[in-house]
Amino acid sequence: MVKLDWGCSIRSSQMMFAHVLQRLRKKQVFNKLSLSQIDDSSDEIREQIRTETLKLFLDMKKAPMSIQKVCKAGHRYEA
User: Fold this and answer.
1) Range in 14-18, 20-24, 37-41 the model is least confident about
2) 33 near 27, Cβ under 8 Å?
3) pTM for this prediction
4) How far apart are CA 59 and CA 68, in angstroms?
5) Distance CA 5, CA 71 (A)
6) Smaller CB count within 10 Å for the chain: N or C?
7) What is the chain's alpha carbon radius of gyration, rounded to the nearest angstrom?
8) Per-chain mean pLDDT for the chain
9) What is the pLDDT of residue 63?
10) Which phi-psi region, left, alpha or beta, contains residue 50 (left: φ > 0; alpha: ψ -120 to 50)?
11) How far apart are CA 34 and CA 76, in angstroms?
């Protein structure tokens, strides 16, 4: 089997996973806040969650969900 053209599939998977993480995190945060707190700071909270999530996927060896780590994990399972 030739391992060619997997980059787009991996990136798409990363984007879907990041989207799910953001939604879950927003739900956790907003469930803890009162309605007035959400109205006052919702944009800042969303941006903070977005930034925190994106850091997980940076193309750096330290980022837990970087493309390098995803490929390395797949390599372990010969995927």
Assistant:
1) 37-41
2) no
3) 0.76
4) 7
5) 13
6) N
7) 16
8) 85
9) 94
10) alpha
11) 45
CA angle 1, 67, 49 (to 5 degrees): 145
Q: Which residues contact 65 (CB under 8 A, 6 or more apart)?
A: 14, 17, 18, 56, 57
Q: Is 34's pLDDT higher than 90?
A: no
Please write down the HEC assignment for all residues of the chain.
CCCCCCHHHHHHHHHHHHHHHHHHHHHHHHHHCCHHHHHHHHHHHHHHHHHHHHHHCCCCCCCCCCHHHHHHHHHHCCC
Residue 11 near residue 64 (C-beta atoms within 8 A): no
pLDDT of residue 48: 93
